[in-house]
């Protein structure tokens, strides 16, 4: 088997992986491993809505933190939330120093409103091209950094351990060639797991593979049951389903039913700007009864001809005229709040192992992520992780990776019956509304699928084990909470706990 060595190995070159690479001291040799070079195969480049940061004259990190805590339904970890929101303005400046130009209104940065934010604090680049612009700028900076190498064309399939320490990964090239990469520090930045569901907005790369590798290596994971469903994916036959950005509702678009009736006002006092889980559930309630739902953005599209160019282009591709026709929408798996349990510096439970971005669970999102907080999390916690790696001693002597097996091209293969079956059962049993019977039935089906999966299909086996972890966590959490809705919770409606924060406002303005 081919072998390679590096100092810091980052698995995944999305926004989180790129931010970690650029924030790591230039004295450390960094290798970014990914199946395809950025911006391909990643969620970051698809992000349309924007990035949240309390940079407005009427805003403050404490207000941003209060909104984040409220969305998290009492499950967010306050110290991590405070760091996220306090360091957000510095993250904005850091991105600007790397060539990002946020959209402007006159001299100042333009700020937009999004669901569950109590004021306009969402930054955009190029209207709805924020994720692509951020990733593009950091990718260019990474290409120019002499200590950063991007190794594309490889998929990591297994984490390597050197007694009690992570020591790199085993990866497989597209042609099936295995490679063992030894590293002093290994960072998992492999993104989310939306593709485990048959209805998702996530790209094909978001299968939770990094999280599955961590699980297999006995690393601590957290909050697996908390999956956020986006209320407005375009109702069409594509996979992934294209997203119709929430920013449209922030700008005044409304959800309507078959009789053109707006229904969100009767569901939540914030109407169409209610928390994402509330809106997703309301849309799901309609859809599961065989009814249809549309997002009526015709007024905005007519009034602001240059706004939302991506949504416009998407609609036209699907023969919808957004100035005249409401857009048909369905809910879809969108974001995983759970992940590899990490400290605020990104350290996982195994020495030498770190995680960042959607693959990690830093505790900021709790049971429900606040819109536009995940690009921010990738940058803020990516920078913190890079700083921790810079301060770390490095140069620990790890022994060469000795995999217990040598993978081949079948490691990346997905059995054409089992993979779609896994995705279907996740949507059926661990989707928007869950109950004990469905979750246990899902676990039974998973056990059968696992037995039928060839041993060599390592990625698929990992995904089945991850699905089992998610279903089990969802079964164990008997009560509804945030995005986790248990239909069999006797107490009824999900909790949206924290309203008042017992928290001192940091002094001074950002
Ligand atoms: C359609 C859409 C719109 C969104 N809009 C917004 C928004 O407006 N604002 C916001 O804050 N958030 C948004 N999000 C969420 C946000 O984009 C993601 O949470 C965030 O970008 C995740 O960044 P990441 O770097 O952790 O993962 P990603 O950007 O997904 O990057 C993961 C990287 O890991 C690689 N990888 C995966 N598995 C392996 C493996 N086994 N081996 C090697 N490499 C691997 C991938 O190829 C990729 O390079 C959106 C998400 C989607 C899907």
Summarize model confidence as the mean pLDDT.
Answer: 92
Strand content: 15-25%
Query: How much is the radius of gyration in Å?
Result: 22 Å
Classified by CATH, the class of the largest domain is: Alpha Beta
The helix content is 25-40%
Named once each, the bound ligands are: flavin-adenine dinucleotide
Assembly state: single chain
Describe the structure.
The chain is α/β, with parallel strands linked by helices and 510 residues long. The protein has 3 domains: 2-226 and 337-391, FAD/NAD(P)-binding domain; 230-330, Succinate dehydrogenase/fumarate reductase flavoprotein, catalytic domain (Flavocytochrome C3, Chain A, domain 1, Alpha-Beta Complex), CATH 3.90.700; 409-486, Methane Monooxygenase Hydroxylase, Chain G, domain 1, CATH 1.20.58. The strands form 6 sheets. Strands 1, 2, 7, 8, 9, 10 and 17 form a 7-stranded mixed sheet that branches. The protein has a 4-stranded antiparallel sheet with strand order 12-15-14-13, covered by helices on one side. Helices cover 32% and strands 19% of the residues. It is globular and about 65 Å long. The chain has 14 helices and 20 strands. Flavin-adenine dinucleotide binds next to helix 1, strand 2, strand 8, helix 6 and helix 11. Residues 11-17, 33-35, 41-44, 46-51, 131, 155-156, 189-192, 201-202, 205-206, 209-210, 243, 335, 357-359, 372-375, 378 line the site of flavin-adenine dinucleotide (FAD).
């Amino acid at each position: 088997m081919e072998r390679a060595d590096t100092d810091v190995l980052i698995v995944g070159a999305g926004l989180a992986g790129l931010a970690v690479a650029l924030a790591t001291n230039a004295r450390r040799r960094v290798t970014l491993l990914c199946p395809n070079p950025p911006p391909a195969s990643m969620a970051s480049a698809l992000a349309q809505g924007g990035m949240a940061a309390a940079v407005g004259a009427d805003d403050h990190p404490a207000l941003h933190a209060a909104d984040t805590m409220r969305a998290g339904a009492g499950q967010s970890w306050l110290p991590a939330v405070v760091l996220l929101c306090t360091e957000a303005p510095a993250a904005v400046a850091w991105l600007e120093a790397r060539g990002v130009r946020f959209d402007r209104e006159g001299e100042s940065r333009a700020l937009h409103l999004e669901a569950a934010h109590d004021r306009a604090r969402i930054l955009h680049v190029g209207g709805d091209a924020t994720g692509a612009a951020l990733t593009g700028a950091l990718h260019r900076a990474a290409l120019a950094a002499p200590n950063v190498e991007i190794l594309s064309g490889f998929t990591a399939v297994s984490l390597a351990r050197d007694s009690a320490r992570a020591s790199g990964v085993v990866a497989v090239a597209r042609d099936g060639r295995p490679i063992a990469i030894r590293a002093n520090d290994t960072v998992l930045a492999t993104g989310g797991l939306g593709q485990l569901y048959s209805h998702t907005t996530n790209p094909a790369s978001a299968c939770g593979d990094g999280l599955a590798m961590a699980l297999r290596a006995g690393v601590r994971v957290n909050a697996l049951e908390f999956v956020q469903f986006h209320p407005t994916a375009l109702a069409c036959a594509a996979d992934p389903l294209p997203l119709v950005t929430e920013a449209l509702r922030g700008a005044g678009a409304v959800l309507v039913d078959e009789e053109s009736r707006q229904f969100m006002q009767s569901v939540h006092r914030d109407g169409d700007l209610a928390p994402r889980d509330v809106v997703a559930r309301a849309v799901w309630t309609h859809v599961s009864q065989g009814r249809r739902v549309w997002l009526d953005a015709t007024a905005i599209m007519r009034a602001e001809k240059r706004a939302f160019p991506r949504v416009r282009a998407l609609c036209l591709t699907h023969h919808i005229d957004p100035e005249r026709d409401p857009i048909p929408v369905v809910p879809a798996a969108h974001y995983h709040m759970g992940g590899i349990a990490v400290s605020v510096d990104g350290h996982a439970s195994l020495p030498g192992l770190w995680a960042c971005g959607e693959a990690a669970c830093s505790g900021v999102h709790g049971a429900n992520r606040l819109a536009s907080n995940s690009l921010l999390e990738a940058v803020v916690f990516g920078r913190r992780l890079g700083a921790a790696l810079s301060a770390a001693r490095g140069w620990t002597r790890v022994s060469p990776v000795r995999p217990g097996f040598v993978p081949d091209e079948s490691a990346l293969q997905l059995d054409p019956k089992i993979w779609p079956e896994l995705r279907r059962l996740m949507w059926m049993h661990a989707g928007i509304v869950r109950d004990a019977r469905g979750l246990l039935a899902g676990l039974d089906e998973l056990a059968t699928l696992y037995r039928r999966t060839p041993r060599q299909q390592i990625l698929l086996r990992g995904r089945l084990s991850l699905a089992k972890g998610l279903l089990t966590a969802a079964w164990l959490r008997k009560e509804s909470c945030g995005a986790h809705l248990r239909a069999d919770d006797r107490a009824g409606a999900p909790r949206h706990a924290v309203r008042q924060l017992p928290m001192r406002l940091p002094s001074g303005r950002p």
